[in-house]
Amino acid sequence: MLLLPACRDNAPLVLEPVRTEPSSHLGYGVWVSVPYGFREASSYNGFQNTAATASISLQVNEIPPVAMKKNFDPELLARRKTELLEMRPVYYGDFDSAFFAVVRDKRKRTIRYLLCVSDGTRTYNIKAFCFEDQAGLYGSALKNALLTAYIGEYEEEKEEKDPFQLAGVVDAQTIVFTRDGKFPTEAEDQAKLEIERLDESRSFLSREERYELVRNEMEKLTQNRPQTVQHDPLKNGVFLYASGYGEAQSVYVALLVDADGSSTVIRGTGTTSSSVSEIEEFVRASFLKTVIKY
Q1: Domain 2-157 superfamily per CATH
Q2: CATH for 161-287, among 3.40.50, 3.30.230, 3.40.1000, 3.10.50?
Q3: 109-115, long-range: CB within 8 Å, 24+ apart, which pairs?
Q4: For a 10 Å CB count at each end of the chain, is N or C smaller?
Q5: What tens digit of pLDDT does each residue of 173-225 get?
């Protein structure tokens, strides 16, 4: 809940950690008031409009907001053809190191929003974006969604059992996770995660080969070649991923490249009742730390 609206682009914002209704769960105990017409995204923790020209998403890392804020240095942004529109300190309950930022990417012609809050253990990066020519349509709703974000139920969720358990070792490079810890699984949705560490002969891939690997894996599992492979910069490496649906199954494929260039392929499958976003959330929480770069 926004208690003190700011009158300047650098005025502090005081936010109270109160969950508003209606609100939707982004993940990790974070809830936001999603704009009307947005639907859950299939390839990341978030929601987007039907045309995918505006979205809200969540990324979690361990980088303190003070360090994250350095990415918004006006001179640094200017070299990237990006303009800082707002930078406001945020007081969120007992957390006083948070901030809210808005930038305009002149090259991509987009407006991007970020609420960065740390609870001392994790940093929650609640993001939104829309194309510049749609800022009048979505800008206020996206900003309101971020400034009414509620981060208050993570402790309850953390005590819950992980959705996937280590089920077995296939070979020296491959392990399997399933819901019930059994392989083959007896879970109703047949959800399975296969983690394969590529051997040295296949591991060190060029940028194009990385994208091609993800597309090929998706095509094997769905018989459809994905049009889009998403990319997230990491603290120490690269993370590529895609998701989709094959015949009677949900599919999630990711490629994690370490700083030394070695690669790990992650294949998630299950029936169409399986939640792709749940699979991705588990992968992100268990196997990588994501860093937002502007």
Answers
A1: Mog1/PsbP, alpha/beta/alpha sandwich (3.40.1000.10)
A2: 3.40.1000
A3: 109/133, 111/85, 111/135, 111/139, 112/294, 113/142, 113/143, 113/146, 114/146, 114/292, 115/90, 115/146, 115/147, 115/149
A4: N
A5: 899 999 888 988 998 889 999 999 888 777 678 889 999 999 999 999 999 88
